[in-house]
Amino acid sequence: MRELVGVVKEYGSRPVLRGVDLAVAAGEVVGVLGTNGSGKSTLLRILAGISRPSSGTTSGRPRTGYVPDRFPARQRMSALAYLCHLGRISGLPAAEARRRAGAWLERFALAGGPDTPLRDLSKGNAQKVGLVQALLPEPDLLVLDEPWSGLDAATRAVLTEVVGEAAAAGTAVVFTDHRPDFVQSTATRSHRLVDGRLQLLDAEVSTCRILLRGGEDADWAGRPGVVAARRDGDVELEVAVAERESLLLEAIRRGCAVIAVDSRAGRR
Ligand SMILES: Nc1ncnc2c1ncn2[C@@H]1O[C@H](COP(=O)(O)OP(=O)(O)OP(=O)(O)O)[C@@H](O)[C@H]1O
């Protein structure tokens, strides 16, 4: 769908990307990690087609929705009017643009409602408008630069759901984030940008140990996120850190006592 080969990007004479190869296919969710200033936003701008590489090639021109790391929302226009305007520019009939924009704003629970002027929006609410403008044209490729940052817990969960739905519908998603466990549990493929090049991360996940006593019996080994389960009176589970909270909740619901949670269990 979209491919970068040998992409180099220099600002002045300083190379930020030094030869990036990245191919993204329909339905994939690609996560990109990297330290501050490593070039993630630069890479995503090139992927989204709004910045040109200094050298190397890009191919594929999917319909793309892009959320920048900072969404500039300084206009007096209302959120809904702004989104309708962008929807029209992307070729949607006015009524359809209005319907889609209204539905997305409701799903993301824009505080103040759709008629709030953009310049009055908080950072998180402006981010929601940024997300909606990217989703509005039903893109084939979604390029999301730290899209979860600044959102409250409920909206973060909605966005995770939306990314999963988009991928299931065949949209390719590429996102950046700073949380390795989150990236690896959300993405179907994860990379780290180091020294201007992309490293592929294996499916390694951080695990932790949970010790449970009593409660109802359960097929713990069959639960998502459980890497190993041992029963020796107590139940000892090795679980993916990303699933720790949901498994603890389930254990408590089953009446188990949580004897220990050791977050230094290791990596698999
Ligand atoms: N338009 C630009 N002109 C000059 N230098 C730039 C420009 N955009 C980015 N840079 C520089 O390129 C480097 C990579 O920036 P980039 O924003 O891509 O990193 P990042 O990995 O997204 O960082 P962060 O995690 O802090 O968002 C930084 O040193 C930055 O200062």
Automatic annotation (TrEMBL):
<dbReference type="InterPro" id="IPR017871">
    <property type="entry name" value="ABC_transporter-like_CS"/>
</dbReference>
<dbReference type="GO" id="GO:0016887">
    <property type="term" value="F:ATP hydrolysis activity"/>
</dbReference>
<protein>
    <submittedName>
        <fullName>ABC transporter ATP-binding protein</fullName>
    </submittedName>
</protein>
<dbReference type="InterPro" id="IPR051782">
    <property type="entry name" value="ABC_Transporter_VariousFunc"/>
</dbReference>
<keyword id="KW-0547">Nucleotide-binding</keyword>
<feature type="domain" description="ABC transporter">
    <location>
        <begin position="2"/>
        <end position="220"/>
    </location>
</feature>
<keyword id="KW-0067">ATP-binding</keyword>
<dbReference type="GO" id="GO:0005524">
    <property type="term" value="F:ATP binding"/>
</dbReference>
<keyword id="KW-0813">Transport</keyword>
<dbReference type="Pfam" id="PF00005">
    <property type="entry name" value="ABC_tran"/>
</dbReference>
<dbReference type="InterPro" id="IPR003593">
    <property type="entry name" value="AAA+_ATPase"/>
</dbReference>
<dbReference type="InterPro" id="IPR003439">
    <property type="entry name" value="ABC_transporter-like_ATP-bd"/>
</dbReference>
<dbReference type="InterPro" id="IPR027417">
    <property type="entry name" value="P-loop_NTPase"/>
</dbReference>
